[in-house]
């Protein structure tokens, strides 16, 4: 089975969507990433990534109701799909395996 | 840090994003960026710096999201089902459109009523005119060989003017067939005549008899119910009756076949065929067809120079009219060169195609004619009236748009694009036009009997069913689009926010365009009114014009049979002895009738001179009450007067270069009819012996015996019917076979102008309808404007305005376009009617007061229409108008 490749930024975005749960849409996702990672992300990058993830089937989206503050425009809310959760779990498992395989002296060197 | 003014991202970036961002995600992207922008502005410490940075970040993101840079996705396909494009043609939408259209129609009954009434009246008028035109152009279109059939015309050139005459003599047809072998395939001679027809023991004076060659029924397409078209007239002793004539004589068609009828009591012929009744749209009209062979000894059958019958030729399919006409001069020279030179005439033969015969009014013949000019006048009236009705529709629809602005707003908010709305409104106007058409068919059926009476001939609706249907379809499309498109585009352009807030005002542009349309409407109406008024004035002038002769109390008896001829010849003194009879005269042409044009040799004139001629007995001048201005009248005291004397009219004298007194004693001689010179014994004052459309021509009155009509002048007063009965009794004593037929000279005079009068009447009806439709529209506009300004009027009244000033205020708006219309229409009408008047020899001057009168009338009618609404509005209690809301 060909596994879907999940890029680093994609992983971050996917995780952020999972964190935000119900309230995940363009703005909150961007802000959350900025807050959590402390790095400045362009909205356009987030937007493109979200679209790519949706295309890969890791995210689903629905339009929300109209809001007053955005000039009456609706929000697109994102949610992680089953495939997305599976992909995240896989990534995490791979990471854990790799961490587990790390020799103890290296770990000590890293100060963890 | 809060700002007083809400910050906005740079406009150019917003616009770019709106135009170029991927349409599928445009909405949320724009929203997200706007939200982020707010966030960026808020989180920065310094106000100015923050905005700049936020602007910068916004613009950068926007640029990155533009489509060529932004990633293209396959979302579109997925969203296709989700975002179904609003299809305006889906059944649900159609149902909704129709429902809304009907609701709008029923909700505003006044407007719908005005719209429908105006449109359907306009369409009815168009239909009526369409029928008339169809009928005019359908004349003679039923002949199978019609394309190749021509009538040979004989043109007489005189003083540079050519008059075409349809009457030829008998020898032409055989000579033409002989000399133009291969070019002229067939020829037929037709002699229109009248005769006494006796069948069994009844006699009828038939006026629609034609004597024709045996190939008449194969040449023309007059279908036969009985008999073979090829052989039905071969035997000289045969006759073909039309269906209704056969029924008149013998009861049924089958009964008639093989029976014997007598023509003029002498010629016995057998019924060999029955023809269908001649349709109304045929220039030739007949009840009986008799073989021409029976009259082969008559002079008009043998003498080239004589005239009496029409000659039709059918050209071979490949031969053109010009090819044949080219050789006509040689033909004339060959057969008539000698005699023409002797008489001083010059003949030009020409061909008239069959369809053109009906419109060939100038031809001196007795067949049915129509006037192309009238066709065009009617056509333009139809177009003008339809235009007036369409303008009504446009104005009322745009005006009502304000009421419908909420609907338009809601539709737009719910996703209707401009195109949908345009089609909705065009659709509505198509629907209304269809209604109007259905209504107008009803109206047509109602008014058709009156229309037939006005036109003076029958119109068969069923024949025109298909053209009418097509015409109505065309009208629906034209009217629907013409009148629907303007309101459609105006309405569809409304901004939804404004229309929903109810802030919508019709723009200035809308008002002025509406006023221009009203100007157009009233210009057309006033034009038609002026045309009708001037036309009527002219006709009245003609009717009352001093004719120069006495047309009252005068009987005209056409001398068209031997009985009546012998009666007048033998019993003239007996007639004169009656105390009610003032004068009796026999002549060749009664005033308004036919006057031969003959060539004369005149004393001291080297060239021959043409004049109209009247052959009359000695009592002509007395009977008509003509005025002698020089010399003396014919008198029995001078027996030589019959052969050696003549009277001329004033025009003749002046044409010959003489004063009336000089003319007396000079001689003249008809090249054709006189053997000796005639001395001019007197000059009479001019009188209008032709139609008043023509100028007075030179006239020579000579006592030759050529009697075609008799006039009996009665003494004024007394019982007219009794006198006529007395004359009839005298006639009955001679045991005549022919009935006594007469009419009055003034009747005949009216008859001359009957067609003109008819057209006048139709014109005035149409002009009335045009102004009616225009007023309907004005009424609608006034109603609307009164409604719109209810509050304003209320406020004005509260502040002390009088009813009068408010009425003036409201009416002024409408009087301005009407006044402009008067200014536009008057010169056009003046120009058009002066052109029309050129066709009359005696015409009125167009007077300025007529324009003033019609102008005042138009203003009056408009004022009356508008004031009804404005007075109503002005009288409303301001408490009521101001209390609402």
From TrEMBL, chain A:
SUPFAM superfamilies according to UniProt: Winged helix' DNA-binding domain
Classification via InterPro entries: Tscrpt_reg_PadR_N, WH-like_DNA-bd_sf, WH_DNA-bd_sf
Pfam family, one: PadR
Protein name in the entry: Helix-turn-helix transcriptional regulator
Domain Transcription regulator PadR N-terminal: from-to ranges: 19-90
